[in-house]
Amino acid sequence: MDLKECREKIDQIDQEIVKKIEERMRVAEQIGCYKKEHNQPITDLLREREKIDALTELTSEDMASYIRLLYFSIMEMSKDHQRKMLNMETPLVKEITTSLDATGRVFPSKAVVACQGVPGAYSQQACEKVFKIPQIVYMKNFNGVFAAIEQGLCEYGILPLENSTAGSVNQIYDLMMQHHFYIVKSVKMKIDHNLLAAPGVKKEEIKEVFSHEQAILQCEEYLKSMPDVKVTICENTAEAAKKVACSGRKDVAALASYTCGKLYGLECIEEGIQDHGNNYTRFICISKKMELYPGADKTSLMMVLSHKPGALYNVLARFYSLGLNLLKLESRPIPDRDFQFMFYFDIECQVYSDEFIRLMSQLEELSDEFRYLGSYMEI
User: Fold this and answer.
1) Cβ–Cβ < 8 Å for 104, 295
2) Maximum CA pair distance of the chain?
3) How far apart are the first and last CA of the chain?
4) What is the pTM of this model?
5) Which residues pair with 302 in a beta bridge?
6) Residue 79's pLDDT is what?
7) Which residues of the chain have pLDDT under 50?
8) What is the pLDDT of residue 337?
9) How deeply is 234 buried, as exposed, middle or buried, from its count of CB atoms within 10 A (0-12, 13-18, 19+)?
10) What is the DSSP letter of 365?
């Protein structure tokens, strides 16, 4: 048989498959109606496993893995179609639709906001981009920002999530597993670090440099030009500048913003010392309650997946089948759990779209643990 004949044979088989798939989906509709009428869940994992095992037995050994993958996909499509046809909402979808109706049309301009650090911190600058009139409450550490939101001490909190050159702020991802919150907006800020010291201090006199760990990573190459200088990590770049200003020492400097220099009476020895000029940090604005504002087109999720082949693939396949763009995939080990990971996803999806609602209806059953972190706009 030549190539043309093979392709003609494939075309004929595909036509038959399409007809049978549609026929199967119509029967699935009837099953969905029965389950809704008798108040039964759409998903029946025991039946699915038994069915796939039985179908696998019908095929040759070299085709078994393909059959399992094919029918897993078919069953997922059937369940998605049943939910869509019957308008069956999960508790999460109901919560989201309620929030869509309850949230105001305009993001607030005035609010009490928790930020980590002291005046002059990059978090403060991010806060002032998100809110026109923020009343900022400064917390000693990132955990304090989460706690302030959970306890209702502040309406919102601002936290750095990732940097374009130094990567993710791992401490934030770890804390996200411990606290309950929703992301309501994000902001991307250009970060320029400067070497700041007391007036009159020369670069060659500096013996110690203070800054936050992320700023140190972002200025790693620059610091190599000062090999004899001790690098000391601080809670925040603004805290580092304040520490230098209050120390009274003439042999210390801080890596911080130009604003910090003005605020704490320091001089800029060198400006823009980050290793890459295209240096941006993404900050998130979090809230205790779910708020979904018009224009929200980015969604963040956290999931713990089963330790079995195809678990991550099954999630990624949902994004692909619904035509959704995956913006970020990050994994972090879960403390006190051996070899278990939390996966963090950012996806691009309009919150009012049908695809978004369908995705939210599907993901919970694919994971051992699932957290919807919110849908929001990035400015």
Assistant:
1) no
2) 88
3) 59
4) 0.85
5) 344, 371
6) 86
7) none
8) 75
9) buried
10) G
